[in-house]
Amino acid sequence: MLAVHEVTKRYGTIAANEDVSLVVRSGEVVGLLGHNGAGKTTLVNQVVGIARPDSGSITVDGLDAVARPEQARRHCAVQAQASVPIDGLTPALAVELVGRIRGGNKADVRGRAAARFERLDMTAWKDRPTDKLSGGVKRLVAYCLAVAVPTPVVVLDEPTNDVDPVRRRLLWQEIRREADSGAAVLLVTHNVHEAEHAVDRLVVLEGGRVLTQGTPSQLTAGLRDRLRLELRSSPGRRPAPPPGVEVNDARDGLLNATVSADDAEHVMSWARAAQRNGEIETFAIQPASLEDAYVQLTAAVAEEAAG
Ligand SMILES: Nc1ncnc2c1ncn2[C@@H]1O[C@H](COP(=O)(O)OP(=O)(O)OP(=O)(O)O)[C@@H](O)[C@H]1O
């Protein structure tokens, strides 16, 4: 549904995107991850026709988005990172207006918007002037505007920013629903933890290039025998961790470490004993997460670049 093939985009000497290829199929949510400046927004801008690739191709619903961006854009819903200026309107009116401009039938647009406001628990705000809404609610309204009419491709740039944790969950469900009804969803996010549970596949960009891509479980496969130990020391106590524990971070009484699966049993016994004798308050041993894999991957690239 969305196919990006060997796209390169330079700004002067900066290669914002270099040979980027990815595919988002109908029914899939694909997360685009990467540090600040990795090239995510540049890629999104080219998909929606705001920027033009120097080379490579992009097709949206089978249409050439480089040669005919205006045509391709009609098949694409976009929620940009910047907020949408809709002051003077209410969310319900703004969504209706955008839906009608985009060719939706009035009753359909209204019906879809009302159901979506309900599912996102936003009904209380739908008839309030938007300049009186909080930043998080405005962000949700921007999402509702983007998907006011159904499109084969949906591109979302940081849709969960500023949204409270409860509505963020509702929003992830809503995004999944969009894919389940047939859309190909490309989603830019910095929230690796949330993405792990909400996306089908991930593409990691670094320095404009695709560093890796795959399902969350493929990306964490290399860390299967690595577990994560997190513990909180008791006030004034700093117990030395046992052998086999690789400390990643230790400050303010919180320790984050990596433990090999083979050592997990003796680390667990040590932690239990330390808890019994009052050295630590709480501890948890968990499987390594996508965030661990992401940090490891990007750190390896940074080390390589530093020589
Ligand atoms: N219009 C522009 N002119 C010059 N350089 C640009 C322009 N747009 C982006 N860049 C540069 O291209 C690189 C990629 O930027 P981009 O905004 O795509 O990154 P990003 O991954 O979206 O970052 P963030 O997570 O901070 O939004 C950066 O080095 C940025 O400074």
From TrEMBL:
Source taxon at top rank: Bacteria
Pfam family, one: ABC_tran
Membrane disposition: Peripheral membrane protein
Keyword Signal found: no
Subcellular location: Cell membrane
Entry's Gene Ontology molecular function annotations: ATP binding
Location of the ABC transporter domain: 2-232
Coiled-coil parts of chain: none
Main localisation: membrane
Keywords: Antibiotic resistance, ATP-binding, Nucleotide-binding, Transport
Name assigned to this protein: ABC transporter ATP-binding protein
